[in-house]
Amino acid sequence: MVKWLNEKGLEDDVVISSRVRIARNIEDVRFPQAARKEESEKVTKDILEAVKNSNKNDNYKFFEIGRLSSLDKNVFIEKHLISPNLIQKPDMSSFLLRDDEKVTIMINEEDHLRLQILLPGLSLEEGWKLCNSIDDELEEYLDYAFDEKFGYLTSCPTNTGTGLRASVMLHLPSLVLTGYANNIFQAVSQIGITVRGLYGEGTKALGNIFQISNQITLGETEEEIIQKLKNVVKQIINKEREIRENLLATRRIELEDKVLRSLGILKYSRIISSEEAMKLFSDVKMGIDMGIIKNIESKDIINLMMLTQPASLQEYFKEDLDVEKRDIKRAELIREKIKN
């Protein structure tokens, strides 16, 4: 079970999760790309000390990227707990993970510190409130690189200003099925909103899952960024629901056939790839959220989506599996979970 999915989130028929992430750097220390090892080690030490001093009741576990197996690193990525970029410099990078897995503090990724809040459903304001609170506590012990004109300084100029990236992970099967998705994505790109795949920039939208996030970090307050993104997401949610209702009214038998056929394949297949499974999971989740399938919960399908990814699957079975064996074991796991 993915811990951050334990709670029921708002608008969870369409919204899987909300993420709020801020980028910070330490004053007078070179950015991670240019830093020497001893500089990175000092940054790590200073951040760990700041967390220890500022932390009242939270429990964090510390992980050094260089000490993790390749499998463990990819499991953290598949659960969206760390970014793919964090593992690129294993001798310098590390992270702190809160025990409920809602808070990750990444150290020496693209910036010295990246604080991530991950919550179920549409929880942008709640995520920002928690993120801002932790950031304020850390800033009492860390000297951030800050410019009165430009705001927080970051290694990539597109993050300078607030340093805030907020994103919402949406399941949009009806928009994709009817061809509306591309038009909507093109429209939101004109107002400073970007659309990415399942694991962020440069990744595919597997299972009709998309990440919608802000592009602009300079010239707007954090609250304005959050509200603008929320307004756009709300419009996308309403359009997805409108199309679902229309499909039920005009193409119900075709829709039921698609959803139940996908459920049947998941129940009885003996070999299934990750990409095929994601497509079928998307159909089944749509069927659950539209009331066609009654005996399975939507969050169980989301958990299966993550549990059946390559690294997570191998962690579950405690085996090093090649592609063919993974596809067999994936089908076995899906049959077991859906049966139960």
TrEMBL record:
Sequence ranges assigned to domain Phosphagen kinase C-terminal in this UniProt record: 14-243
Binding-site residues for ATP, renumbered to this chain: 17-21, 80, 114, 165-169, 196-201
Pfam families per the UniProt record, alphabetical: ATP-gua_Ptrans
Motif (RDXXRA motif of the pArg binding pocket involved in allosteric regulation): 326-331
Top EC class, one word: transferase
Any one Gene Ontology BP term: phosphocreatine biosynthetic process
GO CC aspect terms: extracellular space
InterPro entries xrefs: Arg_Kinase, ATP-guanido_PTrfase, ATP-guanido_PTrfase_cat, Gln_synth/guanido_kin_cat_dom
EC number: 2.7.14.1
Keywords: Allosteric enzyme, ATP-binding, Kinase, Nucleotide-binding, Transferase
Gene Ontology molecular function, alphabetical: ATP binding; creatine kinase activity; protein arginine kinase activity
Origin superkingdom: Bacteria
The reaction(s) this protein catalyses: L-arginyl-[protein] + ATP = N(omega)-phospho-L-arginyl-[protein] + ADP + H(+)
Activity regulation statement: Appears to be allosterically activated by the binding of pArg-containing polypeptides to the pArg-binding pocket localized in the C-terminal domain of McsB.
PANTHER family registered for this protein in UniProt: ARGININE KINASE 1-RELATED (PTHR11547:SF38), ARGININE OR CREATINE KINASE (PTHR11547)
Family of the protein in this entry: Belongs to the ATP:guanido phosphotransferase family.
NCBIfam families (UniProt xref): PRK01059.1-4 (NF002194)
HAMAP family, sorted: Prot_Arg_kinase (MF_00602)
Described function: Catalyzes the specific phosphorylation of arginine residues in proteins.
UniProt-recorded name of the protein: Protein-arginine kinase
Organism: Anaerosalibacter bizertensis
